[in-house]
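Dear Dr. H.,

I hope your travels went smoothly. While you were away I took the liberty of generating a structure for the chain from your last submission, since the lab meeting agenda had it listed for discussion. I wanted you to have the full record in hand beforehand rather than looking at slides cold. The sequence, exactly as received, is reproduced here:
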Amino acid sequence: MKTVSQILARIGPQFNTIDVGTRVVDALSVMKMEQTSFIIVTRNGQYTGIVTERDYAQKVLLMGKSSHLTKVEDIMSSNLPAVSSSDPVEKCMMLMNAYKTRYLPVFDYFEFKAIITMQDIIALSMSDKEYDDLLRFNSEKVF
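The corresponding predicted structure, in token form, is as follows:
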């Protein structure tokens, strides 16, 4: 049975964090630079939530707000279900489906560890060769 700890070993540490008072435009800039679809939001160095591309689209763009004036604390997702590193991947899939989310925070003994994504689960479920082939395919330019 595959577990969250196997995902954590594969993705490594995450450093894409910002403070709750950060402007959305700055969060988007960090997300682009890090080439990720989410960023971890902290308050005084502690996990508070995440901001995703979907949060931006639904809570800023569609609402007519300014990404230069809006703070990430106003649009972040903070009520995501959490998992631990010992949880099975199947539990993650069930939670993601039930809560209609692509992201889950991982906590061990109330200590934040990382965010895992649907992509991380898919990558773990594929064999190493399949995953390497997929990465190679995605890095080639197709015209």
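Two observations you may find useful: The beta strands are 17-19, 38-43, 46-52, 103-108, 111-117. The two ends are 40 Å apart (CA to CA).

With kind regards,
E. W.
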